[in-house]
């Protein structure tokens, strides 16, 4: 059964149809974007490198809006799994450049290619706890990318006033049609190069704490 599903999802026609469905569905969202200029001006005018980070649970709500960045050729690391093949095809259609690899498969090469892409194009997106979790736990790859490229990390958080929540490891949520969606960018985070494993781990934990707090703050506003 899984083989048949993966074969269907690998069809270019199916990928195109699902991409169109996602686009049309997302057009129903009433999106409010907060604090974008704080990092975008850094990228545009100061030649800064930016990594936009979010939890796996929350990326769907931002797909349509993030098409506006396609002219900057932003990169994103996608798993080399069969599911990742489909996600990569959708991301490419939105104008993002996908680099294949994850913590479980092809991670080292994928991270190296992401560093190269980020160095050249200066903008990337990253799912901090993907593709398998646990939820909210920052994987070390994003810290390594930030250190290697002197990039600024910008967390972003999404929340909808009406949504369906899946029974998955990340409690993935899908905003309901015509719901209000908040896309909030957090404060810029600069991580200087570290000299020890302990310092590196402190950076990872700090990012984890900041993103957890930002997520909880936005969630509380909808309760």
Structure report:
With 223 residues, the protein is an alpha/beta fold. It has one domain (2-221): Glycerol-3-phosphate (1)-acyltransferase. Helix content is 42%, strand content 21%. It is built from seven helices and ten strands. The strands form two sheets. Strands 1, 2, 3, 4, 5, 6, 9 and 10 form an eight-stranded mixed beta sheet that branches. A two-stranded antiparallel sheet has the order 7-8. Strand 7 and strand 8 (173-175) form a beta hairpin. Helix 5 runs parallel beside helix 6. The radius of gyration is 17 Å and the shape is globular. The protein starts with a helix and ends with a helix. The mean pLDDT is 89.
Itemize the secondary structure elements and their pairings.
Blueprint: H1 2-9, H2 12-26, E1 30-34, H3 37-45, E2 50-54, E3 75-78, H4 82-93, E4 97-100, H5 107-121, E5 123-127, H6 141-149, E6 152-160, E7 163-165, E8 173-175, E9 180-185, E10 189-190, H7 197-221
Parallel strand pairs: 1-9, 2-5, 2-6, 3-4, 3-5
Antiparallel strand pairs: 6-9, 6-10, 7-8
Helix pairs in contact: 2-4, 5-6
Oligomeric form of this entry? single chain
Q: Report the radius of gyration as a whole number of Å.
A: 17 Å
Overall residue-averaged pLDDT value? 89
Give the fraction of residues assigned to helices: 40-55%
Low-confidence stretches: none
Distinct helical segment count: 7
Order of helices and strands: HHEHEEHEHEHEEEEEH
Class of secondary structure makeup: alpha/beta
The end-to-end span amounts to 40 Å
- Proportion of strand residues: 15-25%
The total of beta strands comes to 10
Within CATH, the superfamily carries the name Glycerol-3-phosphate (1)-acyltransferase
CATH T-level topology: Glycerol-3-phosphate (1)-acyltransferase
Domains, number:
1
For the sheet with most strands, the description reads: 8 strands, mixed
Q: Give the overall shape.
A: globular
């Amino acid at each position: 059964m899984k083989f048949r599903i993966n074969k269907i999802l690998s069809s270019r026609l199916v990928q195109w149809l699902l991409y169109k469905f996602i686009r049309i569905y997302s057009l129903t969202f009433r999106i409010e974007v907060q604090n974008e200029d704080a990092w975008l001006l850094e990228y545009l005018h100061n030649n800064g490198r930016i990594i936009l980070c979010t939890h796996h649970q929350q990326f769907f709500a931002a797909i349509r809006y993030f098409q506006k960045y396609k002219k900057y050729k932003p990169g994103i690391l996608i798993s080399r799994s069969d599911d990742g093949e489909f996600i990569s095809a959708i991301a490419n259609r939105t104008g993002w450049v996908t680099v294949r690899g994850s913590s479980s498969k092809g991670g080292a090469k994928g991270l190296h290619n992401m560093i190269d892409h980020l160095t050249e194009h200066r903008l990337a997106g990253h799912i901090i706890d993907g593709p398998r979790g646990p939820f909210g736990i920052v994987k070390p790859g994003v810290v390594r990318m930030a250190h290697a490229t002197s990039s600024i990390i910008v967390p972003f958080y999404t929340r909808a006033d009406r949504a369906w929540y899946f029974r998955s490891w990340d409690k993935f949520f899908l905003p309901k049609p015509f719901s209000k969606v908040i896309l909030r960018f957090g404060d810029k985070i600069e991580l200087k190069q570290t000299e020890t494993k302990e310092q590196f781990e402190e950076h990872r934990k700090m990012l984890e704490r900041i993103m957890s707090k930002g997520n909880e703050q936005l969630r509380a506003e909808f309760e």
